[in-house]
Amino acid sequence: MDAMTIAMLVGMVAIFYFFMIRPERKKKKALQEMRESLSVGDTITTIGGIIGKVVSVDGEQITFETSADRVRVQIAKWAISTVGNAADSPPQRR
Length: 94
Description:
By secondary structure, this protein is α+β, with helices and mostly antiparallel strands. It contains one helix and five strands, in the order H-E-E-E-E-E. The protein has a five-stranded antiparallel sheet with strand order 4-3-2-1-5, covered by helices on one side. A hairpin with a 2-residue loop joins strand 2 and strand 3. It is rod-shaped, with a radius of gyration of 20 Å.
């Protein structure tokens, strides 16, 4: 292999890293920080689209109320999509 071929391979790996791997890592880190900062009273949306208010945070589990009837649901932290009422904000394009 000559130097030009090696330089092109290194360039392709760098482009792949900066456009695919790095943004995904930043996104995962922000999502993890959001889930760790949850507290009682926060409004959340699950990955299934259920909206509710947090009533208890126990380690890796969250208990939240889904309606005025005080229906309580217990889920794992990883199942939380967003904090805040997602129904109030416009949908985001990916």
